[in-house]
Write a structure and sequence with these properties.
332 residues, alpha/beta, Rossmann fold, seven-stranded parallel sheet, four-stranded mixed sheet, 37% helix, isomerase, NAD, NAD(P)-bd_dom_sf
Length: 332
């Protein structure tokens, strides 16, 4: 296949681009490098420096070739930031996606894979695991922006026949097992790399938010899915788009507590993690775990890196071998 991957210089997008290349497909990465890294674009992929907010440039990029699939990862993605700047998130994520979707309908693209989010399901506690048909009630403008895009894709299917796969995933983690790619957010907000950096002495001690949740050790439970397993699911989803659109929840299916993440990093690294308790953060649900039954049944997908220590080990190896991430000149 010939695939256009937007946001392919970011964490998840770069790993999906790499997996597509590994499977023998042709890949073009489109990114504005506002948060992604030029060095994260996999070897073998072509690169287009385009801002999806520019409708004309977006249209020209989509028109530049005949795509078997477009995979859309480019977005502002920090939940907390979206609460501080709601209209920025709503406007930026929705308009950039609309520009891309409209260009796809104009230039006869037939398959579209969308990086959606578990943030659609809000901040209220609900019995785990969360099924595909669970009530949608976004707990943030970030989650709302993703839901708006999902609705736009519904109409793109009904009116233009653009088949889409919306993959609502939970906590992407880990790194390419071959060490080619890793996680380098600036600033970093994800628990596993933060915990690793604390163990390596690269940041101050960690704070664990909340110790009185109704979970096995009092800390929040989250569903961590290895980014390579995530990539595999995206590729399999493309194969489901002959004649229909699909929506899948995508997660490991196993929940791990915040405290278990700390313990895993200590086991795998052989180092103590400096940490302390902090108050709960508003809106943090006790448990978020995905029910990926439909994805597994319909695509044959199953996670290959299901245990927390496996996920942490790949992340640790990349952080150790890349102390400066992708380097100081990554956004260029």
């Amino acid at each position: 296949m010939k695939c256009l991957v937007t946001g392919g210089a970011g964490f998840v997008g770069s790993h999906v681009a790499q997996s597509l290349l590994d499977a023998g497909h042709e890949v073009v990465v489109l990114d504005d490098l506002s948060t992604g890294h030029r060095a994260a674009v996999p070897q073998g992929a072509k690169f287009l420096h385009v801002d999806l907010a520019n409708a004309q440039a977006t249209d020209e990029a989509v028109a530049s070739d005949k795509w078997d699939a477009v995979l859309h990862f480019a977005a502002l993605s920090l939940v907390g930031d979206s609460m501080r700047e709601p209209f920025l998130y709503l406007r930026r994520n929705y308009i950039t996606a609309l520009n891309l979707i409209e260009a796809c309908t104009r230039h006869n693209v037939k398959r579209f894979v969308f990086s959606s989010t578990a943030a659609l399901f809000g901040g209220e506690d609900r019995p785990p695991p969360i099924a595909d048909d669970a009530l949608i009630d976004p707990g943030s403008p970030y989650g709302e922006s993703k839901f708006l895009i999902e609705r736009a894709l519904v109409w793109a299917d009904r009116i233009y026949g653009l088949r889409s796969a919306c993959l609502r995933y939970f906590n992407a983690a880990g790194a390419d097992p071959q060490g080619r790619l890793g996680e380098d957010h600036r600033p970093e907000t994800h628990l596993i790399p933060l915990t690793i950096d604390a163990a390596l002495g690269r940041r101050p001690g960690l704070k664990l938010f909340g110790r009185d949740y109704p979970t096995r050790d009092g800390t929040c439970v989250r569903d961590y899915i290895h980014v390579t397993d995530l990539a595999d699911a995206h590729i399999r989803a493309i194969g489901q788009l002959d004649g229909r659109s699909v929506t899948y929840n995508l997660g490991n299916g196993l929940g791990f507590t915040n405290l278990e993440v700390v313990q895993s990093v200590e086991r795998v690294s052989g180092r103590k993690v400096p940490w302390e308790w902090a108050d709960r953060r508003p809106g943090d649900p006790a448990v978020l775990v995905a029910d990926s039954t439909r994805l597994r049944q319909e695509t044959g997908w199953s996670p290959q890196y299901q245990q927390l220590d496996q996920i942490v080990e790949t992340a640790l190896r990349w952080r150790e071998s890349h102390p400066n991430g992708y380097g100081d000149d990554s956004h260029s």
